[in-house]
Amino acid sequence: MAENLTIRLTDQKVEWLILDELSGIVRLRGEGDFEEFSGLIKDVNWPGETRVLIGGEHVLLTSALIPSRQQRQILQAVPYAVEEELAVDVGQCHFALGGRNSDNELEIVVSNYAWLQEILQDLDEIGIAPGFLGVDLLMIPGHEATNVLIDNKRVHILTSHHHGITTTAKQLALVVSLLDEEDQENLHIHVHPDEQSNVQLALSEIETADSTSVTIHELAYKPFETLCREFSTASINLLQGDFKVKDEKSSRGNGWKAAAILAACTFIAHIVFTLGQGVYMDIQASNYAEEAGTLYKDVFPDDRNVRDIRRRWAAHLGGGSTDSRLFMSMFEETAASIARSSLVLQNVNYNESRGDLILQLVASRSEQLVSFAESLSKGGLQAEIGNISQDEDTVRGSIKIRPSGGQ
User: Which residue has the higher pLDDT, 188 or 366?
Assistant: First the structure.
């Protein structure tokens, strides 16, 4: 199961949800303070990833035109490219980089370094090590135009150019009026039916504005669950730089090393298995040869110095005549088919004058006898099922076999 734990941390509370993304089933959900969450989660296991979302009001979502394509130069340039938008010194900030938008601008999330560090330390103390740390604002539905998510008393607004803000529901109409005309022209508002009354006045103001074109989308799930279901790994992960889980270069090197070790182990295992199989088959061949020799001596005790048992058997069974070769051919084909089935051979009878080979067999079901006869027919023989009798837990039956084309 692909069960993932998503945690959202806001000023008011902690929300958590374990969702199987393949089936869409929620196994666990809840909200409360951090102590309540830490007490609950220590007894819960989930096989998938751990994802943490922070509130959009705690970050600056912006973009900057950075011409360079070299990662080192980009990292050096970003703080100074967005410095004028910051209310604090760049040294207190953590910069997480995403992709480039339609204007070729680099998408950037700016957050407080010390605050992020404290969050990760608190999570580490209760055994939570997230593989993804993102912003709830970036998970709202819709990927074109301007999308708005009504989230209880909070509102997330995200434009197609990766500019966005999280504000209060009371300020929704004001914030929308401050958007560029292009962003107001195609406005998509996502709201759950239980929360529509909280923003009804704001929605009315927005819909009556001349510059806006509004489409209302009714959410099937509550806001936090909607964010969990809309989760995308393509969104910006704040676990970069000092907060990176592990070094990407080291991870890649370890991956190749692990792959090489695995390949070597697989090759060695294959060689050992092949050698072992060869030894086993050699032992089996020796055992069969010994059993064949013992059987031959029991049947023909007067023969001495027998070197080719197969040839001597053929000679005793007809001296190499056409009928003998016909019998041996049919019997060889039939014996191979019996060995591949789960049937038990009880008796063999060969009528030389008619060329019929009659087998008495025991099976657990009559269908096995039918399947055996069909397999012989596919191998070029004619097979007819004779009498079948049912015992308590077995079936006994006879099958008459003759060469293809025989009467």
Answer: 188
Length, in residues, of the chain: 407
Contact call for residues 149 and 188 (beta carbons, < 8 A): no
Homologous superfamily assigned to 317-403: General secretion pathway protein M, EpsM (3.30.1360.100)
Q: Which pLDDT score, from 0 to 100, does residue 331 have?
A: 79
Query: Do residues 219 and 230 lie in contact, with contact meaning Cβ atoms separated by under 8 Å?
Result: no
Q: Where are the domains of the chain?
A: 3-247, 248-307, 317-403
Query: What does the pLDDT read at residue 94?
Result: 95
Q: Output 335 or 222, whichever has higher pLDDT.
A: 222
Tokens of 294: 């013992």
| Structure tokens that stand for 13 in this block | 């509370």
Residue in the structure block whose two tokens are 């989308």: 217
Higher confidence at residue 143 or residue 381? 381
DSSP 164-204: EEEEEGGGHHHHHHTS-HHHHSSEEEEE-GGGGGGGHHHHH
- Residue corresponding to tokens 């923003």: 199
Global pTM reads: 0.60
On whether the CB atoms of residues 385 and 376 are closer than 8 A, the answer is no
Radius of gyration (C-alpha) of the chain in whole angstroms: 39
- Look up residue 175 and give its amino acid: V
> Three-state SS for 345?
strand
According to CATH, what is the number of the domain 3-247?
A: 3.30.420.380
**Burial (CB count within 10 angstroms: exposed 0-12, middle 13-18, buried 19+), residue 260:** exposed
**What residues contact 169, with CB distance under 8 A and at least 6 apart?**
150, 152, 153, 154, 155, 198, 199, 202
Q: Which residues of 273-308 are buried (b: 16+ CB within 10 A; e: fewer)?
A: eeeeeeeeeeeeeeeeeeeeeeebeeeeeeeeeeee
Side chain identity at residue 61, one-letter code: L
Q: What confidence tens digit (pLDDT) does each residue in 70-109 have?
A: 888 999 999 989 999 998 899 999 999 999 888 889 999 9
Query: What is the amino acid identity at position 225?
Result: E
d(CA 30, CA 138) in angstroms, rounded, equals 22
pLDDT of residue 267: 82
**Two structure tokens written together for 17:** 């949800």
